[in-house]
Amino acid sequence: MNYELFIAKRIIAAKQYKSSISSPIIKIAIIAIAIGMVIMMIAISTGIGLQQKIREKLSGFNGHIQITNFDNNNSEITLIPVSKNQDFYPEFINVSDIKNVQVFATKAGIIRTETDFEGVIFKGVSSDYDWTFFKEYLVEGKLPNYRNEVSFEVLISSEISNRLNIKLGEEFNILFVKDDPFKAPWLRVLKAIGIYNSGFQDFDENYVIADIKHIQKMNKWEEDEVGGFEVFINDFDAINKKSKEVYEQTASTLNSQSIIEKHPDIFEWIGLFDTNIYIIIAIMILVAGINMITALLVLILERTQMVGILKALGSNNTSIRKVFLYNASYLILRGLFWGNLIGLTILLLQKYLGLVTLNPETYYVNTVPIYLDFGYIILLNIGTLLLCLLMLIIPSIVVSKISPAKSIKFE
Prior knowledge:
It contains 15 helices and 12 strands. The chain is of the alpha+beta class.
């Protein structure tokens, strides 16, 4: 029989325990643990969720890795064509965990309406394009289907639709400047069959998704020439490794860049989220630990006579310390239970109802994204319990300082 656990249970179940001097201090300690757990869960869920959403949107417009001609000089506009006859297209055989390889080309254009005009990036895609990203953010209409014949159907953002008053199903003019400034620009009459809203303002206000054949014709490219390739991988955490492997497997005239290399400022910013999460977790566990130390010391002080009697009966200091550590574990577990219950409720409400909104110009998302993984929740609970108990080992040494003769007479 584990008599230390038996005594701890009797202390917890005792009526005097619930109405003792230590009762309000214990309640404060439990509340502190619960609040700390809620804050830690929110910090991790929103931090990782925001990172994933921003990465997802960046890769949705650019792919995880882009392969283009070196002569493009990192321009958003593809200037020098690349032949589709590559060893890695349509499938990357020499690099594992590649999800999809698709062609693209971009060209600067100007949308002109009766009352307004605006510069855009005309992105051409082909039949191999993966529309999964735009399916999620499609708010009106349908997605284009680019096959053999040239299609004049395009996908525009709600940002462009609202600013230029282009409604779903309407046709609009887009102009493309020729290399010779004395020649009239190319004119294309396109039809908006779908409207998307990714919440990523930098891209939404610029990108029009269309058939790549328009760019091939205007640039006088051959049918097998494109602006570049977008490579999607299965595991984003391996992007640096895969980017290096892709670079090694491409021709010397081609350049490959990961989206981390293309947008270093954004990834440096979202990388700070990890630091914030670590700081919040450390502060919350420290606060919870300090509250538990206070509660434990008060419990020991309140049970001084009991400690003296147990010592007189032959219990050693280690056994008595275990009694109070079992007691503290019960309080920590109570705090964790309520913290998990409240935290999960808040996170689920935000995940499915989107109650808290954000400014997309600053955070690139409309609502606070939530990442829920029971793996990290379990680790967070176990880590909090163990760290709090480790912090309680030192103050529990005060038990060894209590003298049986004096403590039995202690009032």
